[in-house]
What we know:
It is built from seven helices and 14 strands. It has 257 residues and is of the alpha/beta class. α3 crosses α7.
Amino acid sequence: xxxxxxxxxxxxxxxxxxxxxxxxxxxxxxxxxxxxxxxxxxxxxxxxxxxxxxxxxxxxxxxxxxxxxxxxxxxxxxxxxxxxxxxxxxxxxxxxxxxxxxxxxxxxxxxxxxxxxxxxxxxxxxxxxxxxxxxxxxxxxxxxxxxxxxxxxxxxxxxxxxxxxxxxxxxxxxxxxxxxxxxxxxxxxxxxxxxxxxxxxxxxxxxxxxxxxxxxxxxxxxxxxxxxxxxxxxxxxxxxxxxxxxxxxxxxxxxxx
Length: 257
């Protein structure tokens, strides 16, 4: 199939799946989504092979963007959440560029979702402080001020009632502990209230895999600010990754050092 001149591949690496699609940067539309299970253990080489596999299934050329559930600075992974700890210290941008033979930008997964929602989704055109909260295998966050990202805001790692939010509020925990929606929503509400007390956002956007159940919890939370569901749903990370690639890499650049 033909591709738009403005289309790039976005890849979203999560604790349970590696997903990719071709993203039109003019519209935010993602097409041709492919997914494979996240390899276990989720080592750098194993993830790189999975990323290469899904990228090669898609039409398109040029740079790719890829998310990781980690703090990423200048392409280097500094933490490892829901992936193998051997990622820490890895130059992920170089590793994934070599694996795919394409230029690659790597960023935190929640940051990518926040970028996408600010450009095309629930936070589009929104001024003031916006907090994006992604809920799935764990809890990720992105903070934006007047549409500008503050990178690597790991607010899923704060404690609420002596519980680490990343585990206490995750959808994986909800399922593993067989929590009722009422009980889990109480946890979510406590967490969002605490986020509000720290950052005083004007808007909280909830994304990640949990959004498909938004009818179960959205009307039961009140963190003292407006709450919206991510409009891009579980594609936000993919779209944000492609946006990052388009913003940061010239089409001819690649690092194979």
